[in-house]
Each structure stands twice: as structure tokens, then as C-alpha cells.
Amino acid sequence: MVWSPQSPDLNPIEQLWTCVKKKLGEYENHPLSIHELRKRIDIEWKKIPASVCQNLVDSMPRRVQAVLRAKGGYTKY
């Protein structure tokens, strides 16, 4: 299967970053420095439950099938 290595459909890490970005958006104030942003990212990253990571790994066969069925088009992932 030829597929872009940066495809979010086949890179579960993109889903984890989406979770982190969502949590960062829930802060009332914007970070005042890059260091503060990094600290917030570290905090939110560490809060991701192992079960979320496992679910993403477990979803890979479904993701691959969806990409194949879509022939490179849109998937729900």
C-alpha cells in the first residue's frame, strides 16, 4: 500500500496531539512564554491515559482497512 508517511489516518500520534491541543485550549489564559507552553504540553501529555494509547494501537487494522476502502480519500479517522 502506498500512503504518505505523514498521513494522520495512519499515524495515531496525530490523535494524541489532537487530545493535547484540545486540553491546551481549555486553559483560561494563553501561555506567556514558550517555556510556559512547553510546561503545559508536558502536563497534558502526561495526563493521557494508557488506555487511550492502547485504543489507538488497537484501531490500526480498522484504519488501514478504511484507507484501502477509501482509495486514499476521506476516512472517519
TrEMBL record:
One GO MF term attached to the UniProt entry: nucleic acid binding
Name assigned to this protein: Transposable element Tcb2 transposase
Superkingdom, taxonomy of origin: Eukaryota
